Amino acid sequence: MAGIAGVIGIVLLDQLVKFLIVTNLDLSAVATVIPGVLSLMRVHNYGVSFSMLEGVSSYLLAGVSIAVAAVMAALLKGRVIRMPVQRWAFICVIGGALSNAIDRLFSGYVVDMFRFDFVTFGIFNVADVFIIGGSLAFVIHWLVSDHRAARPKRAPRGSSGTFWERDTEPFQTDAGDPGDEAPHVLDYPEGRDDDA
Known about the structure:
196 residues, alpha+beta, 3-stranded antiparallel sheet, two-stranded antiparallel ribbon, globular
C-alpha cells in the first residue's frame, strides 16, 4: 500500500510542477532560480530523459516506459526485491516513468524545465530526478550489500576460532526446547574400550 501511495505521490508532484511551468513560462522562456547555478527553462522533449532518442514515436516510448514500470511492479509484488532501500528505489523509478508516460500519451511530448547553468547538461524534470536517483540508489545499494554478503564472517570476539567453536549446532533438550550450542563429539572406532 505504501508503494502505491509513493508512486501516486511522485506522479502528482511531477504533474503539478509541469502544470506550474506551462502556465507561467512561455516555450523556451528562462527564469533564474539561483544565479549561475540553476534556472528554469520550458522545453518540450520529444525523446526520453535529457532529450535523448528524439524522433522516436511518443507512443512507442510511452509503451516502453509502461512495460518497464509493470515489470518492476511485478518484481515488487512478488517480493523478489525485499530490501527496503531497493524497494523504494524501484518505486521512484516506477513513479517517474509513469508520469513521463502520461505526458507522452496525452501531449506527445514531455515538459522539461530544470537547467544547470554552470555545466553543459540536459534539461530535465522532476520525474527524471526520481528515475535517475532511484536507479543510482538501487545500483549503489545492491553493490554495497553484495560486497558485505561476500565478506567472510569473523569469529565471535573472545573466541579462539578453533574448529570446535565454529562447527557447532543447536541441540534439543529433554523438554524439546532449543538448548545451548554443543560441539560435535568425535565417534570412537567400534570395539574401543574407554575404560582401558
